[in-house]
Amino acid sequence: MSDMKPIKAGIIGGSGYTGMELLRLLVCHPGAVPACVTSTTHAGRPVTELLPGLRGETDLAFSGVDLSELAQCQVVFSATPNGAAMTYAGPLLDAGVKLIDLSADFRLRDARLWQQWYGRPHACPGLLEEAVYGLPEVNRERIRTARLVANPGCYPTAVCLGYLPLIESRSFDLEHLIADVKSGVSGAGRKASLTTALGEAADSFKAYSVDGHRHWPEITQELNQLAGQPVDLLFIPHLLPIIRGIHATLYGRLKPGQNPHDIDLQALYERRFAAEPFVDVLPAGAHPDTRSVRGTNVCRVAVHRPRGGGTAVVLTVVDNLVKGAAGQAVQNMNLMFGLPEIAGLKYPAFVP
Amino acid sequence: MSDMKPIKAGIIGGSGYTGMELLRLLVCHPGAVPACVTSTTHAGRPVTELLPGLRGETDLAFSGVDLSELAQCQVVFSATPNGAAMTYAGPLLDAGVKLIDLSADFRLRDARLWQQWYGRPHACPGLLEEAVYGLPEVNRERIRTARLVANPGCYPTAVCLGYLPLIESRSFDLEHLIADVKSGVSGAGRKASLTTALGEAADSFKAYSVDGHRHWPEITQELNQLAGQPVDLLFIPHLLPIIRGIHATLYGRLKPGQNPHDIDLQALYERRFAAEPFVDVLPAGAHPDTRSVRGTNVCRVAVHRPRGGGTAVVLTVVDNLVKGAAGQAVQNMNLMFGLPEIAGLKYPAFVP
Amino acid sequence: MSDMKPIKAGIIGGSGYTGMELLRLLVCHPGAVPACVTSTTHAGRPVTELLPGLRGETDLAFSGVDLSELAQCQVVFSATPNGAAMTYAGPLLDAGVKLIDLSADFRLRDARLWQQWYGRPHACPGLLEEAVYGLPEVNRERIRTARLVANPGCYPTAVCLGYLPLIESRSFDLEHLIADVKSGVSGAGRKASLTTALGEAADSFKAYSVDGHRHWPEITQELNQLAGQPVDLLFIPHLLPIIRGIHATLYGRLKPGQNPHDIDLQALYERRFAAEPFVDVLPAGAHPDTRSVRGTNVCRVAVHRPRGGGTAVVLTVVDNLVKGAAGQAVQNMNLMFGLPEIAGLKYPAFVP
Amino acid sequence: MSDMKPIKAGIIGGSGYTGMELLRLLVCHPGAVPACVTSTTHAGRPVTELLPGLRGETDLAFSGVDLSELAQCQVVFSATPNGAAMTYAGPLLDAGVKLIDLSADFRLRDARLWQQWYGRPHACPGLLEEAVYGLPEVNRERIRTARLVANPGCYPTAVCLGYLPLIESRSFDLEHLIADVKSGVSGAGRKASLTTALGEAADSFKAYSVDGHRHWPEITQELNQLAGQPVDLLFIPHLLPIIRGIHATLYGRLKPGQNPHDIDLQALYERRFAAEPFVDVLPAGAHPDTRSVRGTNVCRVAVHRPRGGGTAVVLTVVDNLVKGAAGQAVQNMNLMFGLPEIAGLKYPAFVP
């Protein structure tokens, strides 16, 4: 990469958690450089005020949103709340900029479904078809040539990667999938909120949105596509008193009549992900912990079949802000610009 | 109670978490008094060294195990590791003492099953039949007259209470129950252990013992009995980075052909637990958090049927050291001695 | 107390942390009853929505602020943000109600100093002289007869109690006191705030307001009064990633020429607090932890003189919401109404 | 560095926290390679079992301690408990290996003092004189040519760096220094211990070893040397419920007669550390948090003089396992082998 000019990247919404994480990754990226990072709230202030870890590494300051300035970038990451990216996606694409949207604006391909879950009409339904769902383990080739990438949600990343080999195997009952998922508080974003206050969420645990969560239609859409048929998924999120990390516990039953001994789950998973740089299948019997992926772009997976029975239990962990957001976005950028897929993403997790 | 002489209670194993919690509850109990509390490690030291919260409330000191002294008590709580209570249960019962065992020694009624899960022969299989499983919501009347109570495990309490109305309703498929449960670290007891060190377990989350946990046969035994037929339960425990608390997320599918609209889950649960002093069914749509039962003997329950589908999702929370151990043991003592069931157990939880 | 009619208590600002804690304590109080609890935000909702621990114990609902209704109470606790109590203190007192203010409105006796630290003129400076600073260990007799009690801040409680015997001994240099104090996040109140978000404050630690904190003039005023001369105190607060609890590490040097061997600090502290129901002096060599007072009205104290040198190091812990706020307010109420000082305040802390 | 052969490094005690952190840093180091890592407990097992974050990055396995194999390394890091390194330092140095000891064995230059604090005679007092105290900000040139480096303790690093400019300024009273320091639990090492169990240490806070801590003589020795005269330091450690991180709050009074306005503390600190790659002086008024250095080799410093008075308050934060242990050791290795001082140490911290 040393003889290439670094890719000029813009970030819209740089003072949220995913925006800050994009900044960290891009400042240290060998083939890209953050050229412009916007924040309505913090415009004018150096980014190191929010990210002291970058002191000495960058002089960048937050700026207001200026589409003509962003149009000078080769790629723009949109890390705003839902509903913003769809208002400027058209102009940016028209200006020849590639857009990676980390919000939910382009994740659902059905505009009516989007409206149903997000409570307003979609502003540019015409782009929904073109947007590529940015899960490289499924859509790598389409991402390479995409103008517009819908970066997956954090839960959908953990759930889809875990179910991928199960569904592709065609051996499992798709009508009774259960995803019992647990997320750290940073999944809710960087904002003042009583729900995720330390005084409220620490030393406690609870489920939430059991009756419906916006990531359910997104996951279902992707699993349907993988399966080539509708799946029936129960998706139950919980709030963990940790900062970063998602743990998905995924249940899938063998189809009736399928002999459990005919299928080697461990081999199935290892084979499926053998070439994947960011999916790590643990040895049989393992239990991944969320800290083992903290700060990294890795999804670790373990697969079990308790007491030799007919139900597979798949455990996956991701860092919701990296593989579940900013890291996956950079992985997508690498693919879109012909960089090595792992460029800028090889920090090892530290324990403890 | 004011004219009764307080019940003399002994505690074997008073320096573990359940023993310490028994002490806290008994020191403040209006109808009982801790007369003797043993600890091999701490013999001779005042109990307030471990429980500074009781400074000024009690002069009790830990003593060594002396069966003749314990035989002076009316009730003995055994809060030792598994395998100890079964060695002295016989002599204590013979001396006319009532025994409430908080270990697993008397929870399984089948001595061969016990040996299979606990790795040694049972020392007094003859008592297994007599022991009453101390879940008052199921066995209240038998507990009143029992000499020997097997106090339920923490997970079994949370899981059995949550499944109770479902199973009694006879409307659910008993072959595909899934209990995805999460426990704070105190469930592992008071001991030096790398697994539950703050440096290892804080700010992280993982599943464990996915391929088999000793609470599985216990839960299955009780659910089988409730159902009057064998159930098939998947039981998947996880380790929460919290001190106290269990959260069970329980899945149950309606039987094939059963119309979801024919069953009012909320009413079913409210009716079943209406008279229970320590089971609180939350309003429809609620998500109990573990902190709402911290330090208390309450089990809070919420029941959902996401998107009106055929699967019930039951959420239960207990404090593993209170309703899941010492509090339930005191509730059992109250029943066995004709005291008000709630005596000494009405501390409200504080938030935050 | 059984033949007295319970005292009717009102709470203004019942949905903050101190208001909620007052509710918990008053609902269980043997000699008082919460008759009215206001919350602008939650008016009309049952208090158990915020305090599930009180489900089954009270039917009370939040109401709007109605002075004529509050005037029916015998005592009103004001648990609002600073600046509110001073606007209705006059009318309530005129109506014959006793007022215990948990905000800072009546803590400083000098109206100009108040204005300097709180940024606006005081609304009823005439009441500042009458208000009694509600630290029973110092002002017990004056509290008994007070109409208006200024309940101390959480830091001032921990610092003043720790310095009390030192200052009274007249052996220490009052010009170089250093209070290095650490507080859990609930000290900031129940509100959405980025600073105390779990994602920001967990697994981290920092000092704050090193250059000036509003509790400094309050502490200084009280220590000056105790000493009968101006003291020079450095007060450095830090934010702990815990929910409840304050730990003060207090430094005081012997006066020049004072022989360290002439003073028995342990005896000094034990003697000073021997009759105090809520101050517990630990044995020599001890290190109190904040959890040992969690949920309780106790202040634990340990005193050291490292390596036999000339500097005393006093360690104190309090629960900022109990002895540092609501518990101390109830203690003051007990004194003001001739109830036993410990009434309703004897919950023991649980560990872990 | 690309044309140099990487330095062969050995690690003795690779399964403790500092050993694991050395492994993480060396596996990713551009100029060094871990050639051998010992662990008595884990000999034969791949290092990735303990460090899943390195899966795919290294095939190294733990081995038993074999001095002849270690003698093939150019540098050996000793990361064992105190008392081990002094038994093999001689042979390794004789074999031409450079030794960086992360234990306390070579930190005190006075063998009698060592014996007094560590409870046994020193095994090779003759090497104490030669050992260089590995704080690059003080001893950089001597480290470059050292054979034997005593890597500083975590507390001493945070305290000495913070006091350095104060002491060098000659304007402060050296007889009344107070270091109120707070450390996360990983400072106690990777071991099963009740004190640092999550159930015991989480959601709580306390001081410990107030009457004497082994880091006190180490700090005093270094400050004495800096000052050229004996200093009098009070050193009070506290246990934080966090995983990594030390926060030191350092107090120093101006000498009597010294006018506070004559000294610009901010400029003093900025000037002193301007050229230091791993000391970051924050802008005036700042409060560093421990998370801002998590996983990094940076020490952040802020300096205050509250209310313009005569006492400086210096705040420093380090990651006890990096700048306080393994990172500083790698920094020392870089100096000893003529590598860029920052090689392998430029990971930015992430927030949250």
* DSSP, total strands of chain A: 14
User: What share of the residues of chain A does DSSP label as strand, in percent?
Assistant: 15-25%
Task: Detail the poorly predicted runs of chain A.
Answer: none
Helix content of chain A: 25-40%
Looking at how many chains there are and whether they match, the oligomeric state comes to homotetramer
CA-to-CA gap between the ends of chain A?
33 Å
Largest sheet of chain A: 7 strands, parallel
Radius of gyration of chain A equals 20 Å
Gross morphology of chain A is: globular
Class from helix and strand fractions of chain A: alpha/beta
How many helix segments of chain A? 10
Which strands sit side by side, in order, in the main sheet of chain A? 3-2-1-4-5-7-6
Mean pLDDT score of chain A, rounded?
Answer: 97
The helix-strand sequence of chain A is EHEEHEHEHEHEHEHEHEEHEEEH
Summarize the largest interface: chains and residue counts.
A-B, 44 and 44 residues
Structural commentary:
The structure is a homotetramer of 352-residue chains. With 352 residues, chain A is α/β, with parallel strands linked by helices. The first copy, chain A, has ten helices and 14 strands. The first copy, chain A, is globular, with a radius of gyration of 20 Å. The two termini of chain A are 33 Å apart. The model of chain A has no long low-confidence stretch (mean pLDDT 97). Chains in contact: A-B, A-C, A-D, B-C, B-D, C-D. The A-B interface holds A 176, 178, 180, 182, 199-200, 203-208, 210-212, 232, 234, 236, 238, 240-243, 245, 247, 249, 251, 253, 285, 287-291, 294, 304, 306-307, 309, 311, 313, 315, 317, 352 and B 176, 178, 180, 182, 199-200, 203-208, 210-212, 232, 234, 236, 238, 240-243, 245, 247, 249, 251, 253, 285, 287-291, 294, 304, 306-307, 309, 311, 313, 315, 317, 352.
